[in-house]
Design a protein that fits this description.
mainly beta; 4-stranded antiparallel sheet
């Protein structure tokens, strides 16, 4: 079982920065790969970024590449999403997720989800 808790969302102006955190816990959480997704009103859940607890590679959606950075702190069991140069179109509920496929991009490849944290970017 894996429990995920997101934090760090909020309201900010376009061009600003925000760091989201995902705290992972549970008996088997370290055996899963981690990802960030987002969902805007009226849209499907969209892949943002993925990372492993042990392997060095990361993967990003084209829409956020160069602006967002996914990272982890193994000692804190926490995955981060650093978001820079934010745009109004980044407004969404952001979710962290855990799954068994390496750098997966489909929601169905993830087994556990956090509750989500709202990010709102004004123009």
């Amino acid at each position: 079982q894996v429990q995920l808790v997101e934090s760090g969302g909020g309201l900010l102006q376009a061009g600003g920065s925000l760091r989201l955190s995902c705290a992972a816990s549970g008996r088997t959480f370290s055996s899963y790969f981690m990802g960030w997704f987002r969902q805007a009103p009226g849209k499907e859940r969209e892949f943002v970024a993925a990372i492993s607890w042990t392997l060095p590679n990361t993967y990003y959606a084209d829409s956020v590449k160069g602006r967002f950075t996914i990272s982890r702190d193994n000692a804190k069991n926490t995955v981060y999403l650093q978001m820079n140069s934010l745009k109004p179109e980044d407004t969404a509920v952001y979710y962290c997720a855990a799954g068994k496929r390496y750098l997966a991009t489909l929601p169905n490849d993830y087994d556990y989800w956090g509750q989500g944290t709202q990010v709102t970017v004004s123009s």
